[in-house]
Amino acid sequence: MPIAQAPPYQLFTLATNVWTAPYWEAASRGELVAARCATCDHPRMPPTPFCPRCHHQGIRWVRLSGLGTVYSYTVVERAIMPGMEAHLPYVPAVIEPDDLPGVRLVSNLVGMDLADLRVGLPVRLTWHRTDAGVGLTQFRLR
Ligand SMILES: [Zn+2]
């Protein structure tokens, strides 16, 4: 079976805001972080202006280990725009971090045989750094 490739990152543009900028700043240093409410500690990923539990705005950022499990995934096998062909197949995935259960991180699976893909697989973070210096998460089989 084919191996999951890195997606065509050059086709995507990063957009940040005041709530997500700390995530991307940490990612540029190779650190995976997640937001938690500074008042009640409820996880807030993606970071939101208000805590969904207590409605306070304070956020504290915690560093994650980079270990997780595959919660969901899909296989992209067809190019929907020019420039994607060399990156097929790629595998967008939703990862649940081991150290923050219930939180879901949208990322990609790479370097894995498509025949081995399963929900629940244990995975480990690796970083992809774009030409612009942006750190993007990728996950590989542990
Ligand atoms: Zn809260």
Topology:
Layout: H1 21-28, E1 33-37, E2 59-63, E3 67-73, E4 91-97, E5 105-109, E6 122-129, E7 135-141
Antiparallel strand pairs: 1-2, 3-4, 3-6, 4-5, 6-7
The structure holds zinc ion.
Residues 37, 39-40, 42, 51, 53-54, 56 line the site of zinc ion.
Strand content: 25-35%
Topology-level CATH name: OB fold (Dihydrolipoamide Acetyltransferase, E2P)
Mean residue pLDDT: 94
**Poorly predicted sequence stretches spanning 5 or more consecutive residues:** none
Ligand set = zinc ion
Main beta sheet strand tally, sense and closure = 5 strands, antiparallel
Backbone CA Rg: 16 Å
Going by CATH, the architecture would be: Beta Barrel
The number of helices is 1
The top-level CATH class is Mainly Beta
> How far is the first residue's CA from the last residue's CA?
19 Å
**What structural class do helix, strand and pairing data support?**
mainly beta
* Helix residue percentage: under 10%
Shape: globular
Spatial strand sequence of the major β-sheet: 5-4-3-6-7
**Number of structural units classed as domains:** 1
How many strand segments?
A: 7
Run of helices and strands? HEEEEEEE
